[in-house]
Amino acid sequence: MMIPSPWRADFPAIAALQRQDQTYLDNAATTQKPQALLDALTHYYANGAANVHRAQHLPGAHATQAFEDSRLKVAQWLNAGDSGQIVFTHGATSALNLLAYGLEQQFQPGDEIVVSALEHHANLLPWQQLAQRRQLKLVILPLDADGLVDLAAAVHLIGPRTRLLAISQLSNVLGVWQPLTALLGMAKVQNALTVVDGAQGVVHGRHDVQALGCDFYVFSSHKLYGPDGLGVLYGRNAALERLQPWQFGGEMVLEANYHDSRFRPAPLGFEAGTPPIASVIGLGATLDYLARLDQDAVSAHEAALHDYLLRGLAARNGIRLLGKPQLALASFVVDGVHNADLAHLLTEQGIAVRAGHHCAMPLMKSLELAGAIRVSLALYNDSQDLERFFEALDQALELLR
Question: Does the model's pTM come out above 0.85?
Answer without folding.
Answer: yes
